[in-house]
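Progress against Task 2.4 (sequence-to-structure conversion) is shown through the following example record, which the project officer requested during the mid-term review.
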Amino acid sequence: MRHPIAVPVLLVCACLAATPARAATVPVPTVQDATGPSEKDLRETFRKGIRSPDPSARIEAVATLGNASRSLPDGGSSKLMARTLAGALDDDDMGVRAAAVGALAWGRHVETVVDVLGDLLPELRQEVAALSTRPDEESRTRRAQTARLYEATCVALGRHPDDRSVEALVDEIRKMRPRTGTQDASELLVGPVSSGLLALGSQESVGQVVKLTTVFSGSVLINRVSEGTAKELHVLLSAFSEDLGYGPPAWSDTYDQSWRTWFQEHEDDLPKELGKLEEPVPAPEYRRPERVPDRRRPGQAERP
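Structure tokens generated for the chain above:
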């Protein structure tokens, strides 16, 4: 099933040499000459590469199609292109699936992206949960890869301000539970799904993250079970509150009550609904790495 390699687009050029007897005739380039391979050409090349038994070749096929298609007249935003890229989400190699999510993360047909990534999330969550009880090194590696892909999928959905994105992520956050025995899948996934919902920023999406603080509170904190997850939720909500220009509540063992009060005070400042996104989202803006100390985590001093 289910970061990118730049591949140059082939340019076809033709030149006729001039002779002493007459001036050279230079043909007028066609649209295809000027723009390179067509969508059909790119998809055909992709189909050949994705059939390779070598995972690295399949990853290259996805990356090539993802990058080259952005030079098409429509920027690769057709439904057919999105469906073609989404087909790689069915690959067994996690690298191939990660390349597909990266290619779908922006600039693609919105409805297709929201549908296929929304369907991918529960599958990845279930795989993380299944691998959480297996002690062998291969399973641990696969679990970490799957969790990273889950995070990338949440980030991609968080870039699409659409009520369908909210719905997909809300379905996931409602499945998050504190650790029980060796089952700690939620500890890996709470952060990504909460970040995706906070990026969308609607009343429903933010409210669901606030509700989750209740799940990771009370006896969870008293018994120090999933305490780290509770603190992660507090940090994410604090950053969101600061971005809105509000001072966040202080951390405490009753942080969930503080965040419920915060939400009651600021709920009306958030959009009630996001509606249906019609146009592909642009590429994410490049942000230089911050050269300031990390935001202080609860109970943790800032780094010098």
